[in-house]
Amino acid sequence: MTENAPPGASYAAAGVDIQAGETAVELMKKWVATTQRPESMGALGGFAGLFDASALLRYRRPLLASATDGVGTKLVIAQRMDVHDTIGQDLVAMVVDDLVVCGAEPLFMTDYICVGKVRPERVASIVKGIAEGCVLAGCALVGGETAEHPGLLGPDEYDVAGAGTGVVEADLVLGAERVRPGDAVLALASSGLHSNGYSLVRHVFFDRAGWSLERHVPEFGGTLGEELLRPTRIYTLDCLALIGAAEVHALAHVTGGGLAANLARVLPPELHATVDRATWTPPPVFGAVGAAGGVAREELERTLNMGIGMFALVPQDAVPAALATLADRGVPAWVAGEVTEAGADRPGGTAVLTGDHAL
């Protein structure tokens, strides 16, 4: 080695800060601790999360349900606003509300956070949101991974993903095979845009309309950024309570693909469903997306939830108990439509929206 040779390469020189990662783990431990269930085993920092499976012995024939998801480009809003403690709730919602549609109780989640540069306080804020979401869903956060990818992501960029596992009794699984003609279609209100369609939303507000995140929008009761970052509602415990209080045939989580397509996923081929727009008024943000971008109603309804985050299909005689249960839990809900036999003008296995929104 010559006297003027450059110093040897190191992981730190390549952009990975091991000490920062260890600091992030220490900061997030208190939030992970808030999610623990009696079945949670081990401590954060191990190579794998542990969960006591003897809890499944109370089931006659337990089926494990698994789901995984991310948050999508809503992350761009969090990063631009430098607000990172709510995006975790969106992540949890996308996973656990997919689990509950089959009737499963979420047991535990793991997360994956990929960053361009580990900033311990920011990573801890993300995990705080994930932990708070897990508490709202009644599941444990048993582990995860934080990865630093310099060169792939910018220093302030990150992505998150999560996976969850739940359990349901085999003979209590909800789905299309339970749905019957005459079932009522109940709509459960969303908290806003939730975590889908943000590529369209960002294109409309930023690229076409030129709005800033700081823009105050009277109809929103705050700024554009606050509205776009509003956390996704977690329905899991509400849906489990609904299943316990009333006969439920199917649930449909309204995510990518919009209202009709997600409802159609829980219909058998011989049945058809209608949803009457006159039964609700979408929150102002949906109309604002349409007006600012000249987006057709059909495109909005294919892309966004339009104010409905979950559908529940129940027999007509279960409607009063179902609505009362949801009202007691603070979830706005209403009868939005009905399931009918398929016919020449009602293709089987499909759902359509009819009428116009009440204003």
Secondary-structure blueprint:
Blueprint: H1 18-33, E1 40-41, E2 50-51, E3 62-70, H2 74-81, H3 87-99, E4 105-115, H4 120-137, E5 140-148, E6 158-169, E7 184-189, H5 198-208, E8 216-217, E9 222-223, H6 224-228, H7 236-245, E10 250-253, H8 258-264, E11 271-276, H9 284-293, H10 297-303, E12 308-314, H11 319-328, E13 333-341, E14 350-354
Parallel strand pairs: 4-5, 11-14
Antiparallel strand pairs: 1-2, 3-6, 4-6, 7-12, 7-13, 8-9, 10-12, 11-13
Protein name: Phosphoribosylformylglycinamidine cyclo-ligase
Pathway: Purine metabolism; IMP biosynthesis via de novo pathway; 5-amino-1-(5-phospho-D-ribosyl)imidazole from N(2)-formyl-N(1)-(5-phospho-D-ribosyl)glycinamide: step 2/2
GO molecular function: phosphoribosylformylglycinamidine cyclo-ligase activity
Could you describe the 3D structure shown?
- This protein has helices at residues 18-33, 74-81, 87-99, 120-137, 198-208, 224-228, 236-245, 258-264, 284-293, 297-303, 319-328, and strands at residues 40-41, 50-51, 62-70, 105-115, 140-148, 158-169, 184-189, 216-217, 222-223, 250-253, 271-276, 308-314, 333-341, 350-354.
- Helix 1 (18-33) packs parallel to helix 4.
- The protein contains eleven helices and 14 strands.
- The protein is globular.
- By secondary structure, it is of the alpha+beta class.
- This is Phosphoribosylformylglycinamidine cyclo-ligase.
